[in-house]
Amino acid sequence: MNFTINGQFVGAEVDLRTSLLDLLRDHLNLTGTKKGCNQGACGACTVLVDGERIISCLALAVQYQGREITTIEGLGTAETLHPLQAAFVEHDGLQCGYCTPGQICSAVGMAREWERGVPSVLTADLTAERAEFDHDEVRERMSGNLCRCGAYNGIVAAIRATVGAGGAR
Fold it and tell me: Which residues, given as ranges, of the chain have pLDDT below 70?
């Protein structure tokens, strides 16, 4: 199978039943993406495929051949953090950090959805170009990503500060 992961062409020989998460972690040693519940309920394994957020534990790797896959390792570096990574640090949007890669990848995808005018269940005016990016809207849009430590206030603050400033791409 052939993939483009974090801008790099990657070939891998894996069983057709291999999940995208297991391909990333077990075969390509990209361990930033976490295995949480392995049932699609926690969001720890969220990655971006062609800029859209997906739950990688429920996705078969074979389905994503030839598509652009971005993991947390592809968003920033230790020297140059992605704006959302820096905001998570600045706003204390993490404690143990286990859910953080999935939270950040999800927030990047969510920001793109919001910028395109994709409504959420809380979007009051469906004719508006974009929903208001308030606290409740962010919490609703990020509701598929769980944090067992309860760092939600910092997560929401980091996302609102970054997306509102246009730095979440």
Answer: 164-169
